[in-house]
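Progress report, Aim 2. The chain analyzed during this reporting quarter is listed below.
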Amino acid sequence: MTAQIHPDTLPFFEELAVNNNREWFSSNKLRWDAIREAFLGFTQALIDAMAPDDSAVAHLSARQCVYRIHRDLRFTQDKRPYKTHIACFLPYGGDRTQCVPGYYLQLGQGDYGLAGGCSLGGGIFMPSPKQLAAIRQEIFYCTDEFKAILNASSYKRYYGSSFFTSKKLSRPPKGYAADWPDIDLLKYCDYCCMYHAPIKDVLSDAFADEVVRLWKAALPLNHFIGRALDLV
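Predicted structure tokens for the chain:
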């Protein structure tokens, strides 16, 4: 795949991290416009590459999936106006503001304190209590299928054996027995798989192909969650 991110992407965010103000951003607006335009093209190429394998995202456009750079300052004391990353999310159902499974990619990570120059993966993050209950029920009823997804070599290679989660329960969720053999699978509050790509991979000519490869490894997890939520 020929799609690439703009070479100024990571340097721009490194500079923005120490100059997070409207004056600096205004004077560097042309740089940002070029970075965003390239990322829109990159995202559309990813959508087109995923479409044959996952019809749940086939209808999406890049502009539906790419997040804005302006931070939401309404409910935070941190008044820095800009994010120091660019990201896209390919959501099941087409609305990236909703909590649904999908495919995530983020370039630039200083504001999250994460390793590497990039995070990408799939699954669902911060589901509602109702959604979480539905996912846990699907895991309980289809345990062997769920374990096969997590144990697939293509999945384990990138995502390991645990989930990227905001919280993991110390006790079984209500309604499930502590002595059920796979009870640990139900203790997560998020079912999100995440891979941290090193900067050398992000800058590689083959980065788009790598993103698609990782996203396809997460596809069975997305479909499982989507089925639990009646989205597929």
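Residues 99 and 128 are 8 Å apart (CA to CA). The first strand starts at residue 86 and ends at 91. These observations will guide the mutagenesis work planned for the next reporting period.
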